[in-house]
Amino acid sequence: MPVVAGITFAVLYGVALLTVPPLPGIDSSGLDVVAHVNDHAAAMRTQALLVTFASLALVVVLSQARSRLTGPYAYMFTIGAAVVLAKITIATWFTAGLALHPGELGSATARTITDVVTMSVPVLTVANIMVAAPILLAANEGRFPRWVGIAAAVFGVEQLIETITIIGPPGSFISPGGPMNLYLGGPLFVLFFLALGVALSLPEDAGSDAPAGSPASDDVESGDTAGDSAGSDAPADSSAAVSGSSPGSDSVGSDRD
């Protein structure tokens, strides 16, 4: 189930991103946004449908991952997962809402709503870090494969750097909703949760603990048995020595008598 959900999420979310060109950047006017919405209104609603189903698949992956986490970082993961889903949902509300009445859309309204959606992307990085960090820590404890821990580390570091896009200048690589968010952070977002779904289909790493029935545990058991037998021989020998000394002492006493 987790690997199927991860693949489903990656396919649906990836297709959704490719269905509609990105919204005009923050250096574009409201009229550019209105023109964009009028040209892609039907595709934007299709995109919202794909993202909705992708979110359902993402919930399956996140729920399965949460079951392997314990302690405070499990709560951190839960909060981060909830924020990720909430931000995706709210951003989809706005983008799909723009496409409902494109002919009546005003330039100022279009620009304002687009700015809200644009700023939701770099702020989402914080929620992604709250999801990636517990996976990294759990991988170090053997709850996930080491390679998914590396993927979580790469994703988390990239998202931490990507937070700078909140204050990035318009028209630059690090502008809000710009190339760094779309062409670097977006693919890493999809690939990380795909990798997490694949990792969840694999058994947990047992770590250094030797399972029951393994040669190491057999050696320990045989060692304990040998120790018990050696210990049981010692009282027998000592009792024999005591019993052996008794006749001698009795004979000496009888000779003296």
Automatic annotation (TrEMBL):
Renumbered to this chain, the Low complexity biased-composition regions fall at 208-257
Stated name of the protein: Uncharacterized protein
User: Which superkingdom heads the taxonomic lineage of this protein's source?
Assistant: Bacteria
Q: Which UniProt keywords apply?
A: Membrane, Transmembrane, Transmembrane helix
Question: Where are the membrane-spanning stretches?
Answer: 42-62, 74-96, 116-140, 147-168, 180-202
Annotated region Disordered: the residues are 206-257
